[in-house]
TrEMBL record:
Pathway: Cofactor biosynthesis; thiamine diphosphate biosynthesis; thiamine diphosphate from thiamine phosphate: step 1/1. Keywords: ATP-binding, Kinase, Magnesium, Metal-binding, Nucleotide-binding, Thiamine biosynthesis, Transferase. Mg(2+) 4 binds at residues 27, 73. The lineage of its organism: Bacteria, Bacillati, Bacillota, Bacilli, Bacillales. NCBIfam families: thiL. Catalyzes the ATP-dependent phosphorylation of thiamine-monophosphate (TMP) to form thiamine-pyrophosphate (TPP), the active form of vitamin B1. Its EC number is 2.7.4.16. Residues 25-138 form the PurM-like N-terminal domain. Mg(2+) 1 binds at residues 43-44, 121. This is Thiamine-monophosphate kinase. Residues 150-295 form the PurM-like C-terminal domain.
Length: 321
């Protein structure tokens, strides 16, 4: 199978998004911007031995997970997903079947969000790398920025924290298994698109998705908004199976394990009931985990735990260290 027959094999038979004028098949894709909406775009990459090993993910999971990481950034902007592009570097020892499974993972996840594959690039190389770029729409002026936190806001998180890191721990310790819920959370994360969409009528809500761990993402919000964030460790949504572990691992997974692809947000106290209503409407767990304080000198995150207050600095996975 050469590059061209491979592209033919992954092309969609039809597009779900009516704004696509030209998808795969020319020098570039053409979409007609939708009136009354701003277009949002984001890109995230997965590299073998950094984001996965063949011992932690099947090719299907790699496809599902790389699209999840991207869709999660769209959710964090409050946006409706629409299209995606895929650039892939394929080592010689990867089979045609493995490649098709990667695309099956992406296509199944794309279908859940009515997204269409509109282009990309295929090259051979020495290390497996896949980069996805996603596009979506948000009602004009309603993108959700990290800079939108304000003094007095409630800080909230969706879902549970630390599940994916615990799943990775189980995978590395025990090997592949399909029926463990933590492993499933690592391999097939579910971005919080319906919840973010349900928040669209709100005038202001600050959102960031949790890819590196809340220690990182809370600091990103503090810095972008010029405020301090206070988080109560005891209020963090953590499953009992994780709490049973030694405190050091448990704390690390919850605060800086990352890859949960939950949302961290802040909203005014007055709008908190609307967050709870959106959570109920979309069957999403949402927990108040802290509050936004006025900034002192340098915006920072304070973790309150057992009556002690400590500065929580950006931790988690950092590339180029
Ligand atoms: N190599 C790059 N060139 C241009 N812009 C970049 C590059 N890498 C990151 N960015 C931009 O920097 C900003 C932050 O990117 P970052 O990848 O940290 O966010 P994220 O996708 O939310 O986090 P994560 O990668 O952990 O999922 C985004 O605006 C992103 O587009
Ligand atoms: C085999 C294996 N080892 C370690 C990890 C952990 N890991 C890799 S990248 C990353 C942060 C998100 O990356 P990015 O910032 O690029 O989105 C994390 C937590 C993994 N998933 N698989
Ligand atoms: Mg990124
Ligand atoms: Mg993000
Ligand atoms: Mg991201």
């Amino acid at each position: 199978m050469d590059e061209f027959s491979f592209i033919d094999s992954i092309m969609q038979k039809y597009y779900r998004q009516s704004s696509i004028i030209k998808g795969i098949g020319d020098d570039a894709a053409v979409v007609r911007p939708v009136n009354g909406f701003d277009m949002i775009t984001a890109s995230d990459t997965m590299v073998e031995d950094i984001h996965f090993r063949l011992a932690t993910m099947t090719p299907y999971h790699i496809g599902y997970r790389v699209l999840a990481a991207n869709i999660s950034d769209l959710a964090a902007m409050g946006c409706d997903p629409a299209y995606y592009m895929v650039s892939i570097v394929i080592p010689k020892d990867w089979s045609k079947q493995q490649l098709q499974e990667i695309y099956a993972g992406m296509q199944d996840h794309a279908r859940e969000h009515q997204m269409d594959l509109i282009g990309g690039d295929t090259v051979s190389g020495h290390q497996f790398v896949v980069t996805v770029t996603v596009y979506g729409y948000v009602p004009k002026g309603y993108a959700r920025y990290r800079s939108q936190a304000r003094e007095g806001d409630y800080v909230f998180a969706t879902g549970y924290l630390g599940d994916s890191a615990y799943g990775l721990h189980l995978l590395l310790e025990r090997g592949k298994s399909t029926d463990n819920p933590f492993i499933k959370r690592h391999q097939m994360p579910q971005p919080r698109v319906p919840f973010a969409q349900a928040l669209q009528p709100l005038k202001r809500v600050c959102l960031n998705d949790i890819s590196d761990g809340i220690a990182s993402e809370a600091n990103e919000i503090a810095q972008a908004s010029g405020i301090d964030i206070e988080i109560n460790f005891g209020d963090l949504p953590v499953r009992p199976e994780i709490k049973d572990h030694t405190l050091k691992d448990h704390k690390k997974w919850v605060l800086s394990g990352g890859e949960d692809f939950e949302l961290l947000g802040t909203v005014s106290e007055d709008d908190w009931p609307r967050i709870q209503a959106a959570a109920e409407q979309t069957n999403t767990k949402v927990t108040k985990i802290g509050t936004v304080k006025p900034s002192t000198e340098n915006p920072c995150v304070i973790l309150c735990s057992d009556g002690r207050r400590e500065k929580l600095s950006k931790s988690g996975y950092v590339h180029l260290q």
